[in-house]
Amino acid sequence: MTIAFISHPECLKHEMGPHPEQPARLTAIDDRLLVCGLEMVLRHYEAPVVSRALLERAHDLDYIESLYARSPGQGHVQLDPDTAMNPHTLQAALHAAGAAELGVDLVMGGEIKQVFCAVRPPGHHAERNRSMGFCLFNNIAIGAFNALENHGLDRVAILDFDVHHGNGTEHIVQGDERILFCSTFQHPFYPDSGAGKTADNVINTPLPAGTDGEGFRAAVTRDWLPRLTEFAPQLVLVSAGFDAHQADDMAGLNLVDSDYAWVTRKLCEQADASAEGRLVSCLEGGYELHALGRCVEAHLKAMLGPTGAAL
């Protein structure tokens, strides 16, 4: 089995000065996959620029145009306290969203079953009309709309296991019954959302600080898995954030590498059951570089099943 690995050189050129969301995140992943032997089962693709129609499906036109207008010729422009643009940021964000679009095209075309998008900036905090939390465009929502509106699917699931609530994804997809959105996250914590009543197609699972792998697995088993079985998605999309790892000091959850392997296998089992194995994963958080590389390794090996365990 082969996994499509989608990235783009512009994603390495986006930087925000001294910042945890740094280009070294992608090089740490590349280095780890080379060392652990996963490189042999990856098929590399260069992410295109996202199609304008899909960009406008997920985001307001005025917001999109504002990012084009604010993109600097040099230096940095601050969009919010956490998010800035340099001269390469806009192109990086367009390619990051394009990676999700291409990933869906690949699995829907039958060319490949599983995809990992190693891209930055991440996307799940980007709302319909604003950037925040290091994110400009909502990559995973764009992938979902591509599947629904260009490939004729009726049901798509987005599963988000970042330590931060996927507020942007919820903002964009809430009320769209074609999309099931599930998110685990530390609460109370940035962005201070996700704990109240929400739309019927959204399953939020807030976790208290200190939650370990046992608590995480129990919550996913309780809240996600029955709803996924009932929904029977025709495509599984993953917002893969690895910042709930115990080594990542950005937050206070205590997951380890094997917890990410476990949740990945559960999502692959659902993909096998209802989606012909189709799964597209997009990188979100994860800021301790050694842990990030190992967690992506665990994530991809779990996608491969027994083949990955043998590597």
TrEMBL record:
<dbReference type="InterPro" id="IPR037138">
    <property type="entry name" value="His_deacetylse_dom_sf"/>
</dbReference>
<dbReference type="InterPro" id="IPR023696">
    <property type="entry name" value="Ureohydrolase_dom_sf"/>
</dbReference>
<dbReference type="GO" id="GO:0004407">
    <property type="term" value="F:histone deacetylase activity"/>
</dbReference>
<dbReference type="InterPro" id="IPR023801">
    <property type="entry name" value="His_deacetylse_dom"/>
</dbReference>
<dbReference type="InterPro" id="IPR000286">
    <property type="entry name" value="HDACs"/>
</dbReference>
<dbReference type="Pfam" id="PF00850">
    <property type="entry name" value="Hist_deacetyl"/>
</dbReference>
<protein>
    <submittedName>
        <fullName>Histone deacetylase family protein</fullName>
    </submittedName>
</protein>
<dbReference type="GO" id="GO:0040029">
    <property type="term" value="P:epigenetic regulation of gene expression"/>
</dbReference>
<comment type="similarity">
    <text>Belongs to the histone deacetylase family.</text>
</comment>
<feature type="domain" description="Histone deacetylase">
    <location>
        <begin position="19"/>
        <end position="303"/>
    </location>
</feature>
